[in-house]
Amino acid sequence: MTIQAAFQVQRKNFQLDVDFTLPATGVTALFGPSGCGKTTLLRAIAGLEQCKGRFWLGQQCWQDETLFVPTYKRRLGYVFQEASLFPHLSVQKNLEYGWRRLPQAQRREDKDQLIDWLGLTPLLQQGGEQLSGGQRQRVAIGRALLTSPELLLLDEPLSALDNGAKQEIMPLLEHLSEQAKVPIFYVTHAPIEVERLANRVLLMDKGRIIHNDSLQQALARPNTPLYRYEQVAGIIEGRITESLADGRLPFDSEAGRLWLAGNNPAGAGPARVRILASDVSIALAPVANISIVNQLPAKVLSITPAATGSVLLRLTLAGGQQIPAQLSAYSVSQLNLTEGSHCYALIKAAALLS
Ligand SMILES: Nc1ncnc2c1ncn2[C@@H]1O[C@H](COP(=O)(O)OP(=O)(O)OP(=O)(O)O)[C@@H](O)[C@H]1O
Asked: Which residues form the ABC transporter domain (predicted)?
């Protein structure tokens, strides 16, 4: 199933002109500089912009040359930067607002379970205006999910929150991105949110989509705001299990097992690790008697000159996931590395992201 969309929005000093097709699963980040049209695109998807275009969610058409389904008839959940709750209604009534209007047969969520998961049970009788920013955003997420949407639109849901509240909401978003049965569009300015949550990235600039990438492709693409020269990073997706008594934390992926340091407060489950290019060295064979325990077989996909004297390698690991490695030009020539070379990625540090 795919999402197919094309929109043209004409404003005085701005034009949105996009045309894209995506798999209708997982989280697609809309990423790009301020004013590039991320919110406008989200609003067009929601039917909040009267504009030319088309939008298909699988077999459902929400807009084309002859049809325009109004927003209230589109099965979507929309979470904004700042949660706009009904101040005169309790948390419970806010949560149930859309849910009550939904025919029983269409209610997919277990309401009590969802409220419990969001940690909102103790707040149910409070008024919407008495909540902190993080609590309000949790209610907004709950309210959207309770309408059993077929598409979820999240517009910078963390950007208005302080650091504490961000830490509180991020694990919920991570869980949502792993478990959600519906596609999610997620607007953000923050590379770390893309790394933690996205499966795909629509990279936008000046009202256009300049790249429609998988997460791996997006992170590997130089000259974009996602790509930070001083800390080029890759993501490996896998599964975390309980820490061992000696403090090591096993992380299993198609690329093999990585050993991480530290605790795993979240327990076993799907997770991502972030690996900085500067934390990856290369050997032509496994190395014994060395402190680096993470040594994964890899193949060199590309070799690109980076900052003065250094070279960036893109490596493919078993199973196809990719990570970058930063080496000196001297090391690349000493090891005689070329595109297609088989080697071992020696990973000094990997940070658990979820
Ligand atoms: N209601 C409006 N009327 C006229 N111009 C608007 C309106 N809303 C947004 N714009 C303009 O349209 C362009 C795209 O805005 P949009 O909010 O979609 O960008 P964005 O990428 O989401 O930005 P940000 O990351 O800052 O939220 C900007 O130039 C903005 O000034």
From this structure: 1-231
**Regarding beta strands 27-31 and 200-205, do their DSSP bridges make them parallel or antiparallel, or are they unpaired?**
parallel
The protein residue with its alpha carbon nearest to ligand 1, atom 17, reads 39
Asked if the 233-352 domain carries CATH number 1.10.3130.10, the reply is no
Q: What is the CATH number of domain 2-230?
A: 3.40.50.300
Ligand 1 contacts CB of residue 35 (under 6 A): yes
- Minimum-distance ligand 1 atom for the alpha carbon of 13: 29
Are the beta carbons of 56 and 74 closer than 8 angstroms? no
Query: In sequence order, which residues have a C-beta less than 8 Å from that of residue 263 and are 6 or more positions away?
Result: 243, 249
Interval between CA 167 and ligand 1 midpoint (Å): 28
Tokens for 108?
Answer: 């997919």
Query: Tens of pLDDT along 209-238?
Result: 999 999 988 988 877 777 765 678 899 999
Q: What would the pLDDT profile of 42-76 be if each residue is shown by its tens digit?
A: 999 999 998 999 999 999 999 999 999 999 999 99
Share of the chain above pLDDT 70, in %: 97
Query: What is the domain partition of the chain in residue ranges?
Result: 2-230, 233-352
Supply 259's token pair. Answer: 């050993």
Please calculate the CA angle 300-304-308 and round it to the nearest 5 degrees.
130
Angle, CA 75 vertex, CA 69 and CA 78 arms, to 5°:
105
**Do the beta carbons of residue 44 and residue 9 sit within 8 Å?**
yes
Note whether ipTM > 0.90 here.
Answer: yes
